[in-house]
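INPUT
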Amino acid sequence: MSSSRYWRRSLRSAVAVAALVVCARTAAAQPAAGSAATNTCASCHATLAEPKLSAPPAAFARQDVHRESGFTCIDCHGGDRTAADKLKAHDAARGFKGAPAGQTQIAACARCHSDAEVMRKYAPRQRVDQAAEYATSVHGKQLAAGDSRVATCASCHGAHGIRRVNDAKSPVYPTNVATTCATCHASASHMSGYMLAGKQPLPTNQLALYQQSVHYAALTKGNDLSAPTCNDCHGNHGAAPPGAGSVVNVCGTCHAVFAQKFSTSVHAQIFDRGCVECHSNHAVRKPSDAMLGTDAQSLCAGCHSGADDKGVMAATKMRGDIERLKAGLNRSSATVSALSNAGMEMSAQELAVGTARTRLTLARTEMHAFDPTHVTPVVQEGLATLAAVDKAGETATAELRFRRRGLAVSLGAILLVVVALAFKIRQLERR
Amino acid sequence: MSESADFPSTAAAGSFNRRTFLDALLTVGFVSTAAAIAYPVSRFLVPPASGEAATNSVVAAKAAALKPNSGLIFPFGSKPAIVVRSGDGELSAFSAVCTHLECTVQFKTDTSQIWCACHNGLYDLAGQVISGPPPRGLERFTVNLRGEPGAEDIVVSRGA
Amino acid sequence: MVQQVVDWLDERLDLSGLKHFIAEKGVPVHAQEIWYYLGGLTLFLFAVQVFTGILLLLYYRPSSTEAYESVQFIVTRVPFGWLIRNVHSWSANLLIGAAFAHFFSVFLLKSYRKPREMTWISGMLLLLLMLGFGFSGYLLPWNELSFFATKVGTGIAGSVPLVGGFLIRLLRGGDDVTGATLSRFFGLHVAILPAMSTALVALHLLLVQRQGMSVPLRVEKHLKPGERVRQMPFFPNYILRDVLVWYVALAALAALAAFSPWGLGRKADPFAAVPPGIRPEWYFLAMFHTLKLIPSHVLGFEGERLGVIAFGLVAVFLVFVPFVDRRSRDGRNSPVFTAIAIAGVLYLVVFTILAQIAS
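OUTPUT
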């Protein structure tokens, strides 16, 4: 072709490209221009029979956080929303991407959500590193390796009808997170083919186990939204199981005192999975004193046996101390309530029993250093308090006995009068 | 309460002595039983030192005894409670029973927070949970000052 | 010294009529005279209740948030509060026992016959008032047992036909047992019932003084015409005996307060479940157990309703016994009513024991 035509065509392409770039940039900065009324995407898709095509725009129209901020279909899907003709609306030249999936989806969301300048306009407090975190996660790494079965943004957050995280109906609201993760992770068919490091198949019972845990109970029944669910231990967008050695740190974000005591103990060097060895990872149940000891129900007996085993001796000592304090508490509080019911003033003793009970809780905390010399002093303090309570109880019992004796004496006086009266009557009537 | 009767020394005085003896015995008996009733009743009528049942209102301490940025545990009925004076002199009082596992909390002067030693629960000076395992804030009580200026009592009360 | 006081009053009030009355007043002497003391015993125990009740009033607070704590305060902090409270609780039981014994002895001896019908009616009403005292007073400590016993007891009032629902609301001060019930029961216990009792006791005593003690038919029959039964002087013989009985009662109270003190129980929680084996005080047990045994539906009517109606009819019948028992009115033996009395005693004793065993 002639050089002028070449140049003209090049110029046209350059202008088109420049325009596209400018449009793309401005499109990234704000919702696409044009009145909201012209949205042929919605009006056309609403007429379609197939639910896969008609449902998403309907959901978007009903309730969606992006729509509320002024975004429309083309901000994620591209295309032309003023065109009534399908081919024109779906024109790749106008940026139509179809339904983004896989890496394309990540890129589509990250176009705004990883851009601090954009996010500052809509949600200044929101983080902008989700895509970067995602790349470090198991999901992200698998996706990069070509696995299309892993979760992407829309898998957890939805695509149309997205709600804010603090909306109770959002799939990533704290009480809903576990079920959202479980849509894939509890499905044996979906998880087939995935292996653990040791070549065992990836388990699919985590949700079932988690639902037995105290964390689940606290979250769903205790209305404690700070109770952990999947993302609190595994990470949010950078989801991966905590590695060996980091379990203590993960649990320790909330259970700080236990983590600190445990890390000073011998077990910190020995346990592969830290807290999980005794408390399990998903089915974390309410612990009991029976876990500590050397009998069949205890956990210590799983590794420790033999009378001269240091672990056996430590476990026996600590459990014995704790049981002694518990028994003392039961005895003393029973005495105190009996005396209180009998009418003695026992509020100071009730207070002291409460203090002793605090010592029991502290002893169970100290136990996580797995050293009896930490537990025994705390137990001794508790027992000393209880000894004082028992002494006060004895004083009260003595007072009760004193009252009884006093009444017995006045009973004597009364009976004396009765006898004297009887004699007096006899005397009167003898005459 | 047992009386001591004076026995007439002669038993040979006959019915007259016995009658007086019986009358004396009866009188002593009536008087002592009357005393055995009157004494407890008169003691009952005098109100005890504590005035009224300490369920809803308690004197925690003397106002002067509580310095700024300090806290004091005191008994409220049979449960512990804590009264705190913040750095700028404001008084507040809460139940000292931690909402996690019922350990007794304490005031931490270095961070001006209420802290539970058992599992590191932290509450702010409004009784709300800052961090740690407690699921709820501390029950808040009303604080009033009562008495002569300069020698006031801190009165902590709860309920309507 | 007593004589000086009497003389001083005589100068001003002319006590000659009173002195004559006391000097002349006599009490019949016969084999059954021991039953005469039950009336005085009941009066004495009632006086004990009034006395200890007034003392408790100085510290008790009739509100659902403070009642339990105030009783706890009385028992733990007030000097000898435990004694006053225990005497009040035990004397209440002894009072009702004495009242029933007095009632049955009068019933068996037919002392209700002419001319003592009014004494009988006032006495029957007093017995019902005493039961009201017991029922209302039982709620006042506001503990678990008393709360639920009141709930069950007032619930039974709902079985009264036509006015049942109204009665429940009247008794409870609402639809449920709440602080409103406590206020109402307190008012009943310390004001309404005492006022009514005072009037009725005054009438009852006046009649007894005016008409003298009734002599059993059996003794009357053996009298020759015009002969009066042997009497003992009221003062000092009968009085001394009466006081002796009162002192025995006092001894019993002291022993009970010492060896079987009343506990505080747990504070009532309206939202807690009814504790198993809840039942009313012993004097309501027989009636309670009977209602439990009646099948839920009898001849198409609600069993409990029939039971309540039956008890109501029995009460009305008892009030009017002097007018129904014509044979004793005419001075003749009345074996039917003797049988009814014995049956009544047996029924109460047996059913109370059965109720105790059942729980």
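end of record. The mean pLDDT of chain A is 87.
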